[in-house]
Structure formats: structure tokens, C-alpha cells
Known about the structure:
- With 227 residues, the protein is α/β, with parallel strands linked by helices.
- 34% of the residues lie in helices and 18% in strands.
- The chain has an 8-stranded parallel sheet.
- Helix 2 links the parallel strand 2 and strand 3 (60-65).
- The longest helix has 17 residues, at 203-219.
Amino acid sequence: MAQINPSILSADFARLAEEAKAVEGADWLHVDVMDNHFVPNLTLGVPVVESLARATDTPLDCHLMIEDPDRWAPQYVEAGAGSVTFHVEAAAAPVRLAREIRAKGARASMALKPATPIEPYEDLLPELDMLLIMTVEPGFGGQAFLDIMLPKIRRTRELISKHGLELWLQVDGGVAESTIERCAEAGADVFVAGSAVYGAADPAAAVASLRARAETATASAAWACGH
């Protein structure tokens, strides 16, 4: 089943509790944490995640675009995140970190920037609950979807199937009604959508529409047959 994770990067930061309530039909609320070092932007940190966790019943999916996630990621679990994603490009010990996130009670996820191939990390996949393929360069919302990432999504889905893993495959960047079907057909089943949700007149209806498009595409996708 397709999961839609609205990104609060596109929400009104002055009204985060209200913006979270506006998408209560979503599966997760995607929280982009940026440190102005790993990516050239600065967003929010642990205190805001703690406040947001108290303000919504929708579980938080924290995407850490930060340096030294080995040190900081566990704090986001303690702050209330149900899923924590670290970038493999920034992690010193990704297996140890994934195990620590899981041990603290959250889902462990690893993200790959567009230029980072999946193949060197095949042996790490059983340590994860989700893998995030970035479909834009991380750091800013509202970017155009990179179609050149579709083959990478397909290869990743093939590796997941090869090992018989119950691993979610998330895409983030430029996901909208015009692109979500291609992502689903390629093998993604978790979709981060920012401006496509929060830029809509009715964010809740946008979530439902995106989910319907993704599920329709998944139903006819070769990778999902017998899945």
C-alpha cells in the first residue's frame, strides 16, 4: 500500500501544529532537518520535533540532512520521531547507527543523494526498515523531479526483492501528481510530497489524490505482481 508523507518544509513554520492537523489522513509527517553544513540550508532541530510530536498523532518521519548523524540521530528518536533517516554520505558507522535507532524504538532509514549508487550498500539493506532515494539534490524544497533517478529506484527495488526484505522504498523530491505514478511504477512505495500537498487548496484532498494515483500505478507495476 502506498504511503504519503507530507513534508513540513513546505508548510507554514509559524503554524506547524495547524499544518500537521491539515494532513491528519497522511501516513507520516516528514520533517526535514538541515544543518547548513551537510546541505546549504538551515531548518529545525530537536526542540521543534519534540513540540511537533506532542501536537500531532501522525507519526514523525525525520530526515536528517546533517553532519555527524551518528551523534545526533538517536536524539531524534528520544524527541518522538517514529522513523529516523540518516544520509549514508554523512554516517561514519551506518550499521551501528541503524541498530541504535532500532534499539531506541524507531524505524531506521538510510538516504542516498542522487549521485550515490545503491549497489555498494546492498549488504546493509537487512539492517534497515526503509531506504530513501533522493529524487532532487537535498537542501531545498520545490525542486523539479529528476527523472534520471527512476532506474536507480528500479535497481533498488530489485535488490529488495532479491533478498526478500520487507523494506520500504521512499522517494523525496519533486513528487507530485505528474511524477508519483512513475515513482510507483519503478518500485517506490513511500512518497514524500511537499508543495504538492501544502501548496494545494485542500492539503488533505491532495494526500488522498496522490495516494490513489500511486496505488493505481503500483497495481499494474511488474515489481508488485505477487508482492
